[in-house]
User: Fold this.
Amino acid sequence: MIHAMALDIWTSRALLQWTSRHFERQGIDRPRLAAEMLLAHVLGVDRLRLYMEPDRPASELERTAYRNLVERAVAHEPVDYLVGQSPFFSMMLSVGPAVLIPRPSTETVLEHVIHHARHVLGFHAPLIADIGTGSGAIAIGLARHLDQAKIVATDISPDALKVAHDNAVSYGVDTRIEFCLGDLLEPLGSRQFHYLVSNPPYISDEEWANVSPNVKQQEPAIALRGGPDGLRFVRPLIEGARRFLANSGQLVLEVAASQKSTVLQLAQQAKGLENAHVLVDHESLPRVLVVDRG
Assistant:
């Protein structure tokens, strides 16, 4: 580990280089980013400062604190939980074991809705439902970029809603987001929305076996596992979407890449829905189902 290396002075540059390589060998996701997040946390600075002062020497106390966090990360504790924050869509959201750590693939949901709302007549002041909001990543990101949007964010977990609310307060958008406790579409009542968006649990039982330990052992399974075929929550969202969508409204749903054909078929068979298609994410994987209400 770091204390065993033969360097007289450990600078930010040296710590990041060593830790990035170590994390890469250990199979840690996004190794460079993980190293930056841990070091910035220990030093009490933002990540940009690490590059503005690359030759800053770390004190013995800082090295000890950093080493402890690195060891915990290698033991499969998620880096985002270790620092209590997760980067997403130009935000730093508070996260903890009650909520799923937001992933870059989910940003495709926001990018589509923001572009659609800005360019399609009648959607400039949308009412949006975010089903299973978790940390509030989708709802808060949309509220920040669509300043006339109003959002209903639901979750079955009271602890998750508390995290989401606190994040919304920190970004000053809490007055435009209504947080509702309940299962899937149930909290929406009789309202109709311009967009139904969700990143629901969609990992099938078969795929669960291959999920990395830091996810499987640390993140909430309730936010990840979607039953035998992964569609336990996806299916009712597709089938129930028409009831809650205004005319020409859209369902925008993150799914597993392996589910593309199945979810397209479900959407094509659902009454009152049309124009089903799947968008690719940042890795060019088919990850976001988009369907219009007819």
Remarks:
- The first helix runs from residue 12 to 25.
